[in-house]
Task: structure prediction
Amino acid sequence: MPKHVVRPGECLTTIARQYGFLDYRTVYEHPDNEALRQKRPNPNILFPGDVVAIPERKAKSVSVSTGQVHRFQIVVPKKELSLQLQDHKGEPLANEPYVLEVDGEPPTEGKQTDGDGKLKERVPLARAGATLTIRGRTMRLRFGALNPLRDCPKDDVSGLQGRLRNLGYNPGPADGILGPQTRAALAVFQVDEGLDMTGEPDEQTLGKLEERYGC
Result:
């Protein structure tokens, strides 16, 4: 069975599509990926270097009559972009109009967040990013760029850094290193959440970060 080594920006949906599977679960739930499921319980968050077993594709046959023209419709899958937007006080940007421009696609206009500040859009699998404009601010989004928070090689903390940054803290560049700036940002997060201010990614802090971020 072939193996796929995860590259930056990839998720199970894009990997499955690359090998001809419309549903990522066909790949993720295969018995040969049991170890991957244990390590990455959220299939949307993989770490570069993770190994995914690719099952054998089964050919699908269709019976048609001869001497006629037949039309086949191919379903092109999309991935879901899901965001929860808050202001600097942690209040949701509820019912706010926004413009989302996915790379290579026309802008999505005339929509707004829901009452909890949530935004959900279906975007083409091949797209790697988008630009979001809301309440006079423009943000650059990178799809699949968030690394796991746990079980990363060499104590890589890029997943921690990405979550802190997206929550409004400043951990510095996502270099995977627990340096002074990342420790300072983590300490501020701990104070805000009523935790002991240690600047260390202990289990209680990681659990709270997962709770606040949602994954």
